[in-house]
Write a structure and sequence with these properties.
Largest sheet: 5 strands, parallel
Number of strands: 13
Number of domains: 2
Strand content: 15-25%
Shape: globular
Radius of gyration: 22 Å
Distance between the termini: 23 Å
Number of helices: 17
Structural class: alpha/beta
Length: 407
């Protein structure tokens, strides 16, 4: 099933300017499919998953470049960073846009190599799984989410309603195209295979994991804390690994597009703020599988339903920004008096505060902490509570309830 991705417009614009385009993201989010659907007859496709081609790329990159001249799509570039200096030389000779398309599943290593070798020559975009708008065929209509009334009204008209059962089915299945678009695909089998493949191919290469069961325990302990402050020592204790090992594994999960760390907002003036980031899994289906929720119904009724709903909302907002090629000026607020705001979007110096709640009847008490932002001496824009309400209603002069189905 073909779906329009929000990234299409930004990618086309960036490719007309840069000689190299790099798409990073976790395995199976659709990077290769996205690019293959845009290949014209003159662009070759080569994957470094092929052992023979990878051997050529690593042992004789100059010959590889002769064998696969531009325009070309090179899949999984992180396996052969030796190619990057040769790509730089090729684009410097040609001085044309749209020569090389690259994909990579290990963001840190790919972006480090690209920034060192291809500075000023590469457009880098990040891809997550399918957003709800993309699944509904409205991907090209998606814009970076801001809680302003006009945007909420526009989205409500585009995306329609969503029942509680439908919402948690979407959350439980996740956003990888293979399971999000094909209901007949066995979701448990997909995630079981995904984790095994991920362990065997990516993590072992990056972290030299010796004890796969320890890493699986670590994944489960991390998934159980999605939507919460990250406490590496606590996760390490539950996984029975050293804290330094857990810290290293978290950095690899982040680099591989599996988790996102939301940084706290603080300044020198607000030194009493908590400085630990919040942890979010970037696919709720994987998170629910790791925490062993066997159905959407058990997930909805379980103790983790609020945290995983928050995780889903956060990832949907992330997709609306990343898939439009925008950086995410996202933070959360929490001080030592336990005053917390789930998300601050800072756009053009204005702070837009948001709370995430698993309730259909929000009231003013849910936005009581918004007043702490006044001491930051910055403009405060419209805010709200993203919740299970069916329509947007005002809660104060500048805040409203925001139905989850418009995200």
């Amino acid at each position: 099933m073909m779906v329009s991705r929000t990234l299409e417009g930004f990618f086309a614009k960036a490719a007309s300017q840069f000689p190299v385009m790099l798409i990073t993201g976790a395995r199976q989010v659709g990077k290769t499919t996205f690019l293959q659907n845009r290949i014209h007859e003159d662009r070759a496709y080569v994957t470094l998953d092929d052992p023979l081609i990878l051997s050529l790329a690593k042992s004789d990159p100059a010959l590889f470049m002769q064998r696969f001249p531009p325009p070309v799509l090179i899949d999984e570039i992180q396996y052969a960073p030796e190619l990057l200096p040769y790509i730089k030389m090729a684009v410097d000779r040609r001085r044309e846009p749209n020569l090389y398309w690259l994909t990579g599943s290990q963001q840190f290593h790919v972006m480090k190599g690209a920034s060192e070798s291809l500075a000023g020559r590469v457009g880098i975009v990040r891809m997550l799984g399918l957003s709800r708008s993309e699944c509904m065929g409205q991907g090209t209509q998606s814009t970076p989410f801001l809680p302003i009334p006009e945007e909420i009204d526009r989205r409500a008209g585009l995306f329609g309603s969503l029942s509680l059962q439908e919402l948690f089915t979407v959350i439980w299945r996740g956003s990888f195209p293979a399971v999000a678009l094909h209901q007949e695909v066995d979701r448990d089998l997909f995630y079981s295979s995904y984790v095994q493949t991920y362990l065997q191919r990516d993590i072992r290469d990056l972290a030299r994991v010796g004890d796969e069961m320890a890493f699986l325990r670590f994944l489960r302990a991390a998934a159980a804390r999605s939507g919460n402050l990250l406490n590496v020592a606590e996760v390490a204790r539950d996984a029975d690994v050293a804290p330094n090992t857990a810290k290293n594994w978290f950095s690899i999960l982040q680099a591989s597009g599996i988790v996102y760390l939301l940084e706290p907002y603080y300044t020198n003036i607000t030194s009493r703020l908590v400085k630990s980031p919040k942890l979010y899994f970037l696919d709720t289906g994987l998170c629910a599988w790791l925490t062993e929720w066997s159905s959407p119904e058990t997930l909805l009724a379980g103790a983790a339903s609020g945290a995983i709903l928050e995780t889903w909302i956060m990832t949907e907002i992330l997709k609306s920004w990343w898939h439009n090629g925008r950086n995410t000026p996202f933070y959360f607020y929490r001080d030592r008096d336990q005053k917390e705001i789930d998300l601050l979007i800072i756009q053009d110096g204005t702070i837009y505060p948001l709370e995430f709640k698993k309730t259909a009847s929000p009231d003013k008490t849910a936005i009581r902490h918004f007043q702490v932002l006044e001491k930051l001496n910055k403009p405060i824009g419209p805010g709200g509570i993203i919740c299970l309400a069916q329509q947007s209603l005002p809660l104060s002069e500048s805040c409203s309830s925001i139905p989850v189905h418009v995200i």
